Structure formats: C-alpha cells, structure tokens
Fold this sequence. Notes:
The structure holds two protein chains of two kinds.
Chain A: E1 14-17, E2 33-38, H1 47-55, E3 85-93, E4 96-104, H2 113-117, E5 124-127, E6 132-134, H3 144-148, E7 155-156, E8 162-163, H4 169-173, H5 179-183, E9 189-193, H6 194-210, E10 217-219, E11 229-233, H7 252-258, H8 260-282, H9 290-293
Parallel strand pairs in A: 2-11
Antiparallel strand pairs in A: 1-5, 2-9, 3-4, 5-6, 7-8, 10-11
Chain B: H1 2-9, E1 11-13, H2 17-41, H3 47-51, H4 55-80, H5 88-95, H6 97-101, H7 116-140, H8 147-178, H9 183-187, E2 190-192, H10 193-199, H11 201-209
Antiparallel strand pairs in B: 1-2
Amino acid sequence: MSTVTTEGTVGLGLKRVSASKLPDPNIKRADTLAILVDISSCIGCKGCEAACTQWHDLKPPLFKEGQDFVGYQSYPDLMPSLFMMMKFKEGETEKGLTWFITKYQCMHCGDPGCLKACPSPGAIIQYENGIVDFDHSKCIGCKFCLSGCPFDIPRYDSNNKPWKCNFCVDRVSAGLEPACVKACPTNCLHFGTKEDMLSRAKKIVDQLKRRGFEKAIIYDPPGVGGTGYIYVLPHGDKPQMYGLPKEASVSPWISLWKGPLKIFGAVVLWGTLLGAFLQLILFGPIKAGNKKED
Amino acid sequence: MEETRHMEDVQIERFSRFDRVVHWLVAITFLYLFFSGLGIYSPKFSWLLTLLGGLDFTRWLHPWTGLLFSVGVLLMFLRWSKDFLLTSDDMVWLKNVKYYIKSEEEKLPEVGKYNAGQKVFGWLVFIGCVVFLASGVLMWFPESFPISLVRLSIFLHDLAFILVGAGFIVHVYMGTVGVPGSLSGMITGKVSALWAMRHHPKWFKEVMRR
Lengths: 294, 210
C-alpha cells in the first residue's frame, strides 16, 4: 500500500519496524512532523473528510435509509474505506451549550501501540518523520494492532488487513502537505514540524485563555510518546467529550506479553526441551525390561 | 529371563480405535496450532508461517484448526476425565516423581492404567483447551468484544501456549524416546505385557484377571 520501500536506501528514513530490531535510525534523519488541529477555529465543514476520501481513492458507503441517526456526522464510525471523519457531540459547559467537534483518525503516536503489538516483522513501520504506516504485504491479519491502539483506530477489510490514516505519506514524501490540511478553509489544520506546531498551538492556547477559555490545552498525550496529530482543545478539562481519552497510553498488557512473558516462555519451553534431553543422557529411557535383566 | 522374553511377545490392548482416532485428531491439530502459533507468538519463528502455508493463510487456518482441536479435546474429556481423577496414591507418586525420572519406578506406588503424570497432563490439556478456545474466540473477533478483554485474552492465550506447550514437549518425548514401547499403544492400540507390567502393574493385573 505504501509507495515507500521499507528496506534499502530508497525512500524515507525509518525509525521503527514492527517485530524486528531493524533499521539503524542514525543514517537517515528527519524532523518529526505534526498536524495541528485547532478545534477553536473549526467550523465543521468536513472538507478534510472529503479531501481524504478523494486523495486516497476511497468510496465509503453512503448513509442508508433506516440506519441509526448519527446527527451531523457523515458516518457513525471509521471504516476500512474511511480513514478519517469528523465527530460531533453536544454538551453543557459553563459557557452554555457547546458543540464538541473532533477530527478522528490515527494519531501517529510517537510510541505506537500498534507497532509494539504487531508480531509480523515489517508489517508496521514508523518513519523517521514520525508517520506510522502499514505494509499489507507483510501483514498476517491477526488484528493485534487493534489491541495495541489506545485510540481504537485500525479498521479491517474482508482480508483482515488494517486500514487507517497514513498521514498522506506519499504527498508528504513529495514535499506536499497532507490532503486534509490542503482542503481546510479556516486554517484550523496546520502542517509542519512538531516543534513549530507546538509553539503555534501554545500561542493559540494563550489567546483562548485571554478570551475566557481558561481550561484550553494542547492535547499531545505523553503516555504514547506524544502524537503526530496534536489538538488545541478549548475545553481541555473534558477531552472525553471530544472522543479523546484523558490519559492515552499503550496498555500495560502489551508490554507484558512482549517483554516478561516472552522471556518466561523461552525459559520454560527451551528449559523443558533441555530437561527432556538431560533425562535421556543422564538416566536413559525408562525401559520395561532393563531392571530384570541386570 | 525366560518369562521376560515370553511376556515381551504377549500383546494386550491399551487403546481402542476410538481412543486412537481422537488422540491423533487432537495431536495433529495441536501440532499445527503449536507451530503456527509459535510463528505468530515469536517474530523469530515467523518463517514457520511461510512453511505452513504462507503468512495470511496460516494465520487464517489457525483459528479453524483450533475449533477442530477443541472438538477433539471435548471428546477426550468425555472419554478420559473419569480415568484422570487423582487418587491419594497419585499424590505420593507426584511427590516422588524424581524416582520415575531416574528410572526407579519400583520405589513409587503401583500405577493403574494411567500414572499421575499422564493424568496431570490430561487436565493441563482440558483446562488449557478451555482457555485457548475462550481467549481465541475473542482474538478472532476483536471488534466484537471490549478491547481490554481482548488484550487480556492475548495474554492468557500466550500463557496457555507456554504451559501446554511445555507439557506437550514432555508428552512427545515420553511417548517416543523416553518410555520405549509406548508409541505402539497409540498406533496399533496394543502394548507388550512386559511394558504393562512394568509401567502400569495395577492395570496389568486387572487385565489379567479378566
């Protein structure tokens, strides 16, 4: 699916590859990229959604008659053929009725849970610039990436292959901005280095605080090593209202089965094999007739 | 000496046709599950997936094989669970298992048709199968269950793999090289009278009385 090779000297530099120690991240260097989503200036036009499906040649099924009402949203949820969507939720705040809008897609975690959980070498890759992508040719379809993801992102097609936002890696590696950013008419979406985006976000948050949104925050959860999508949330005390977990982190279960449990397994299984062999060479087979013949 | 040689030639039935079919159904499916699972469990063994039919295919076949395995284990449970109940003699046997390992069986309580080690392995398989099946279904359809339960399931599935896998290694070793004469019990269904008398004296006497 990716236009970029994961081996050799061609293409973007790699930072991490699932289930393998490759590559050497010291050869190719790149600044970490980010998209800043400034919720305070989003008008909910869903232009980004349209641009995303258009650029990626996606044809998500249209809303069907009789389907559960999903309000202003285009779709109830992400689909294999829908990499991002806008989520809308109404809630009460001290400022009265508030419309909580979020851009919902893969967050491109600095420390990706999907990549950690993936058992197939090379099926999930993180480029030096922070983009997390899948390589379907190496994917075995086990769906462990869904267990690793703190944001409930990957969606699977009928061949059990996962699909999600790839940060328009093809555009980005050609020096273009991602399609959603390109389409945004209100400058709610910004694209650049993570450093630049954070300083811009800080300015917006300061502005919001001056305008009376004292709880405004930058959403860049440290539990997943920061994210490639960072958000300015005007109501930062209620990230759940935006559909974002308050404390996003990779589940400790994943570290457990990738770390201590693997070592335990190796010791037990190899130990048993060794034990059986030692029994054979130290005491010999437990024969039926040997004792009597002595 | 004379008597020993004579007893080696006498064959007595240990496992019926049904027993053998069920055993090999479980054994062959488990073999596939063990090696395909190993390829998914450890990236170092992902080449096994290629060997067993390709990355996607092996992962796809694994859960279906698991269902077949579960059916086999259910039949095993119905057939053997009563025989595998542990007695007080079995506890003594387990406590002194070192004598068995050292080939000094005469120091252990007389064994019936199954020794305590075999019984414990039986229960390991029965309980392991329940864990494999329950956690496996959640891992098969992770979108249909709370994700925290799916994460727990992967842990339990791995843990069951390690423990049942270790038991399986011991079982294969004992059934082939470790205790000569055992394998024929599961192939032809018959073992030599000498083998039965040495390893399962209580059962041997029962058979003789009939």
